[in-house]
Specification:
single chain; 495 residues; alpha+beta; 7-stranded mixed β-sheet; 19 strands; binds pyridoxal-5'-phosphate
Length: 495
């Protein structure tokens, strides 16, 4: 097992470099052969060095050979850095992590409690695993029109109402930076004898600075899905799933291992895996210093944004609101209501006028993401200057701060499991004729992005009207095969 003092090492990356450096005869895949067989345009774009390190799995001295192989050591180092019993590198993002989590839970039964606004990969995990979800609503901020986190009380109620549930899945932090009371959620789940999965896709950095909200593994979560590429800086698509130190007896390590393999290519990208090795090394050895700089820069950026007429920011003032136990300062969530414009309009102007591209824009709030090691102060200055200009361009449009946000109607009855609805016979019908039918796809009006309909649920006229109104007001529709909602994919009628 790796020790804490080994965190400066990058065994997997080193093994790749060693292999590439020896100029081996590559009578194996990939066909570009480390560069000579690559398309010239690709070679030109990403360079010979990246191609030379694109080495296949099952290569002696890298991930096969004497135990522990460099690959195993690298995963062990990640487990140590995060305080996990075991960690698995993933090459299909936190999406794969959620698929793994649901497949692992399905070994114990066929019912699970899921936060309603979970990422689509969690619902897809239910489809893959054949789990029937009982949904539990997160707290919705009626002023901002965004969802916060699940409360332990809401989870406890849902688990009491679903005694057959074999686990619970919650999201923390949210897109907007709200962090859940994970210790309370874990306590609630464990009191019902089931494991807690936390989708910490947005929190892979939390373990590395004491000024940040505590990370889910340290608070008793059993399985934690971490999208390392989002903020810690590994390559896009790379992620980690961690098994908690206390998970034994609730989640079987071998089952997780099998689930990882089941939803993974047999040709994982060495570049993605090496990027996880290097990102873990950076976070474990210099994360505290780098995050300290970023956190300080974010304080200054928030203060400067708040000084711009019509703009406000989300920050630790939110903590204490129902469903907000902590706040992640690496997210810059800007409340634009005071400008009279929507977040879509402001984001478009930022793009058009200054080539500033945000992570997300909604009706009231837009979000910029800052990475662990980026020069945040300089990025912030550029953003603030552009926002000042955008507000001038917008002119005086009045203030929408007092406008109420219409809450979505209740979701429809779950008639079939998501898997049955997804795999069964389907047809496409006019949205006007869809009320009463069973949805075969998800529909989520944004804002606030909480799915209004999931596969297997009965469509209601109220919900279809709500989505139509949201679209007419400039909102968007996620998950649907027809993003304008002229048609909906539904379960075919029998006979
Ligand atoms: C909460 C949450 N979970 C999971 C994911 C999926 O992550 P990835 O893109 O790494 O597959 C996302 C993506 O944005 C997310 O927001």
């Amino acid at each position: 097992m790796a020790s804490r003092s080994d965190q400066g090492e990058t065994p997997y990356l080193d093994a790749l470099l060693e292999y590439a450096g020896r100029d081996p005869a590559r009578l194996h895949v990939p066909g570009h052969k480390g560069g000579p067989g690559a398309a010239p345009a690709l070679l030109d774009a990403i360079g010979e060095r990246a191609l030379a390190l694109d080495i296949p799995a099952l290569t002696q001295g890298i991930d096969t050979g004497a135990d522990p192989t460099p690959f195993q050591r690298s995963q062990d180092l990640a487990a140590r850095a995060y305080g996990a019993a075991r960690s698995w590198f993933l090459i299909n993002g936190a999406s794969q992590g959620n698929h793994v989590a649901l497949l692992a839970l399905a070994h114990a039964g066929d019912s699970v409690v899921v936060q309603r606004n979970a990422h689509s990969s969690t619902v897809d995990g239910c489809i893959l695993a054949g789990l029937t979800p009982t949904f539990v609503s997160p707290e919705v901020d009626g002023e901002l029109g965004i969802a916060h986190c699940l409360t332990p009380e809401a989870l406890d109620r849902a688990l009491t109402e679903t005694p057959q549930a074999v686990g619970a899945s919650a999201v923390s932090p949210t897109y907007f930076g709200a962090v859940a009371d994970v210790a309370g959620l874990a306590e609630a789940a464990h009191a019902h004898g089931v494991p807690l999965v936390v989708d910490e896709a947005w929190g892979a950095h939390l373990a590395f600075h004491e000024a940040l909200p505590a990370h889910a593994l340290s608070l008793g979560a059993d399985l934690v899905v971490s999208s390392t590429h989002k903020i810690v800086g590994s390559l896009t698509q790379s992620a980690i799933v961690h098994l908690g130190e206390g998970a034994s007896g609730r989640i079987d390590e071998d089952v997780v291992d099998r689930a990882v393999t089941l939803v993974e290519s047999t040709s994982p990208s060495a570049l993605l895996l090496a990027s996880l090795d290097a990102a873990r090394q950076l976070a474990a050895t210099r994360g505290r210093e780098l995050l300290g700089e970023t956190i300080a820069a974010m304080v200054a950026i928030r203060a400067a944004v708040r000084e711009i007429e019509g703009l406000d920011v989300l920050d630790e003032r939110l903590v204490g609101a129902t469903g907000v136990h902590g706040y992640d300062p690496l997210r810059l969530a800007i409340d634009v209501r005071g400008t009279g414009a929507s977040g879509y309009d402001v984001a478009t102007l930022l793009h058009d006028q200054a080539d500033i591209n945000l992570e997300l824009a909604g009706e009231n709030v837009m979000v910029g993401v800052f990475g662990m090691a980026e020069p945040a102060a300089a990025q912030g200055e550029r953003l603030v200057a552009a926002l000042r200009q955008v507000v001038v361009t917008l002119g005086d449009r009045g203030d929408r701060t007092r406008e109420a946000f219409a809450p979505p109607p209740p979701w429809g009855e779950l008639v079939l499991s998501p898997r049955e609805a997804f795999l069964g016979p389907q047809e496409v019908v006019c949205a006007q004729d869809a009320a009463g039918r069973i949805a075969a796809e998800s529909l989520a009006a944004y804002p606030p992005g909480i799915p209004n309909v999931l596969p297997g649920e009965r469509l209601t006229a109220e919900t279809l009207d709500y989505i139509r109104t949201a679209l007419e007001h400039g909102g968007s529709l996620r998950g649907a095969s027809d993003r304008r909602l002229s048609t909906v994919r539904v379960v075919a009628k029998a006979g």
